[in-house]
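Entry for the shared binder. Reason: the reviewer on the internal report wants the predicted structure included alongside the sequence.
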Amino acid sequence: MRDDRRTRVIVVAFLMIVLCGLLVWAGTLESDPDRNEFPNENDFVMSYDAYVGDRVQVGGTVVETDPVVFVVTTKDGDRMEITAVSFEGDPSVGDEINVYGTLETEQRVIVIDSYTREPWERYYMYAVSFIAGLWVLVRFVRGWRFDRDTFAFKPRTEARAETEEQYG
């Protein structure tokens, strides 16, 4: 295979087109319970009775703990309080929970599996990921340079010289 700038541009453009096509194709697929994709609050809030008896996956914020009641909010801003029946665990008011279970009448879900997350955990995850991303970016920029002639990344010779002096 030829190793020049034009070939690399064509290959990168081709791979980007394939990636965009696969993303569009994935967006056209429907939910399939056999693939562990279950209806969520965006599906059943507007037509609740149609989903009674089905397994659902839903998440929201705890507003009451005995019994566990949580509020779900759809993309459209509609809200619904749902009672979690057979919930194992001890969530606090304000915690975020995700529940997998069977949807029942009277806005109840019989819990099969669930997990609870405190509100600060999401911000911690984003902060740690951001710091790690910056660290990787700095390491990449310090160790590599972009060669416009070959349209490729190449190791920086200064970084190699510093490393060789440091470690022999």
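Summary line for the report: The chain is about 40% helix and 30% strand.
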